[in-house]
Amino acid sequence: MKKNYRFTISYDGTRYQGWEHQPSTDMTIQGKLEKVLAGMTGGETELIGAGRTDAGVHARAMTANAFLDTELSVDEIRDYMNRYLPDDICVREVKEASERFHSRYNAVGKTYRYTCFTGPVKPVFDRKYVYYIEETPDVDAMVEAAEYLKGEHDYKSFCSNPRMKKSTVRKVDRIDIVRKGSYITFTYHGTGFLQYMVRILTGTLLEVGFGKRTPESMSDLLLAKDRKQAGQTAPARGLTMIKVDY
Prior knowledge:
Blueprint: E1 3-11, H1 29-41, E2 48-49, E3 58-68, H2 74-84, E4 89-96, E5 109-118, E6 131-133, H3 139-149, E7 151-154, E8 169-180, E9 183-190, H4 197-209, H5 217-224, E10 239-245
Helix pairs in contact: 1-2, 3-4, 3-5
């Protein structure tokens, strides 16, 4: 009899074409996980993720669920998967879940963190996980700008999909920008995020930090509902999914 299992997964997204499996490549996080699950159960298994991280984006605690017919314990499932998964994907925990649990539909919040590194010396050992910028932006100006971006808004200006048919209204209740030494972190928490939304928010806030925009201009940018008026899309390598709330 099949049971529903909940997975907590970490991965380095550098080599992969995002979370969602694609017919043209086997280099996706979902694809790698499902392949191992199929080997374990002897049949095809769908693993449903809480979100669809983009190519090159990382995760510390992605949540997923799958219905499995297995006599293995949760720890044995975890150990089996980690034995056969690539070194850059790890199942941190497996738990039995209720039959109605759905990792995507039941999620009530998500936390993402974007990390920049500033200074004259390149971060050789962190290069896969940070966006390196030589010039140091004005953090106070970015913090001020972030206040305009928090709340429940139509974030169409920060969505990369011009053919988005569903609502682009989201609630972002937290944007924390902190500088510690050469690192600047942008931590976002909200009910959900649009395609490339966190990276576009970060790119726009960096433009404020570099004096290319004013903090006050964020209000007009939200009202414009026009992706062309927002800033650059920050590189994928600096973005990590931190946590999913239920």
